[in-house]
Amino acid sequence: MDDELARVAQESSPPTDLLERLFTLEANALIQRRIERRIKESKLPDRKLLSDFDFVFQKGVDKTLIMELSKLDFVDRKQGVIIAGNSGTGKSHIAKALLLLGCRKTYRCRYTTAADIEQFFSALKKS
């Protein structure tokens, strides 16, 4: 607050500029807290970005398809995504990056693996 008051005094800005700036800062902080809460609730083990994915090395991964998925249109269509493939092909990296994008759009997301799902259903059968 002190920094903003000093800035307004130095620039001789009208009080409405100060209020607008403070409201904008608070709104942005609220959105950031919401995004961070979504990431925490998602159980995302670590943050990955699609920009860090090596599509040149992983020749079997269709970059066009992954970039289309990154638009998250499937969420609006209420569809899910299952990423399957051999070990070491980048499935987890892509899933984590898509989930992070979803959290940044303040969607509620959940990271899980096939092994976690299998364990969940095994526990259900036992009870």
Verbal overview:
- The protein has 127 residues and is mainly alpha-helical.
- The model has no long low-confidence stretch (mean pLDDT 90).
- It contains 6 helices and no strands.
- The longest helix has 27 residues, at 15-41.
- The chain is 59% helix and 0% strand.
Q: What does the secondary structure layout of this molecule look like, with pairings?
A:
Layout: H1 2-11, H2 15-41, H3 63-69, H4 73-76, H5 91-104, H6 114-126
Helix pairs in contact: 2-5
Instruction: Tell me the radius of gyration.
Output: 21 Å
Helix content: 55-70%
Distance between the termini: 56 Å
Question: In one word, what is the shape?
Answer: elongated
Structural class: mainly alpha
Strand content: under 5%
Quickly count the helices: 6
Query: What's the mean pLDDT score?
Result: 90
Which runs of at least 5 residues are low in confidence (pLDDT < 50)?
none
Q: Please summarize the sheet with the most strands.
A: none
Q: Report the count of strand segments.
A: 0
Q: SSE order, as H and E? A: HHHHHH
Classify the oligomer: single chain
Main features:
6 helices
The gist of it:
With 127 residues, the chain is mainly α. Helix content is 59%, strand content 0%. The longest helix is centred in the first third of the chain and has 27 residues, at 15-41.
